[in-house]
Amino acid sequence: MKKIQILGTGCPKCNALSQAAEEAAEQLGIEYEIEKVKDINEIVKYGVMITPALVVDGEVKVAGKVPSQDEIKALIK
Questions:
Q1: What would the pLDDT profile of 9-31 be if each residue is shown by its tens digit?
Q2: Which segments in the chain show pLDDT lower than 70?
Q3: Catalytic residue among 3, 10, 11, 13
Q4: Which helix (H) or strand (E) holds 11?
Q5: pTM
Q6: CA 34 to CA 22: how far, in whole Å?
Q7: For this structure, is 30 an active site residue?
Q8: Strand, coil or helix: what is 57?
Q9: Other beta carbons within 10 Å of 24
């Protein structure tokens, strides 16, 4: 099972990334769990200074933007 985390304080881009990641995981047909990390101290522990950020299985894949569906699929695989 993939663990997908969305790092962000709940801004519109953070919500868009969360939605896009969930849709990408569904389209891939994989088992996944999505967690939204809103605590700024937890976000900083990942070394992320600009949100939103996508973390897959503990590894930061992208920060500061909302990638396309195809980009997200490639990052989740």
A1: 999 999 999 999 999 999 999 99
A2: none
A3: 11
A4: none
A5: 0.94
A6: 7
A7: no
A8: coil
A9: 24
